[in-house]
UniProtKB/TrEMBL annotation:
<feature type="domain" description="SCP">
    <location>
        <begin position="65"/>
        <end position="178"/>
    </location>
</feature>
<protein>
    <submittedName>
        <fullName>CAP domain-containing protein</fullName>
    </submittedName>
</protein>
<dbReference type="InterPro" id="IPR035940">
    <property type="entry name" value="CAP_sf"/>
</dbReference>
<dbReference type="Pfam" id="PF00188">
    <property type="entry name" value="CAP"/>
</dbReference>
<keyword id="KW-0732">Signal</keyword>
<feature type="signal peptide">
    <location>
        <begin position="1"/>
        <end position="23"/>
    </location>
</feature>
<dbReference type="InterPro" id="IPR014044">
    <property type="entry name" value="CAP_dom"/>
</dbReference>
Amino acid sequence: MFRQTAFGIALSTLVLATGLMNAPVPSHSSTKQATDDQPLSIPSNQVAASTTVFQTTALEKSVFDQINRYRASKKLPKLKLNANITRQARIHSQNMARGKVPFSHQGFELRVKAIPLHYNSAAENVAFNQGYTNPASQAVIGWLESPGHLKNLRGNYNLTGIGVAANQQGEVYLTQIFVHTSTARRK
């Protein structure tokens, strides 16, 4: 069985930077290939005046709802939220927020392997932002405006998990993992 992974990164402080990386996983090895690195300005009127304490589970639900509304508007099937995938996405966001791993896709293949599902393909979008009143919406806007992220959002996936973590500096990290599986049975 051939497994394919796709990556995307969004950075949303005042600049949005993207990078699409593809990594085939048939032998569980990773060859990464960056394709787009152009920064885009985000208007300063979208930045919050003060740091807000965020309810991370509410942000996760907001991302999930926004992505499914987008998919439905494009006549794509809605994604089903999966607790095991969400757990891995949360761990990654928490690790980035705590500085245990850099803002990146580092460990993506391990996260996907830790999900007890047989899958055909998987992808991941991550975002970091600070100073926005609605970090979930800013991440989704950034992903929708980025070709690599949009490819993941529109991809042939049926399950997803979203994890959000914030730190004391007001930095908000978001991870969305997409999985396509023909059956949702355990390994």
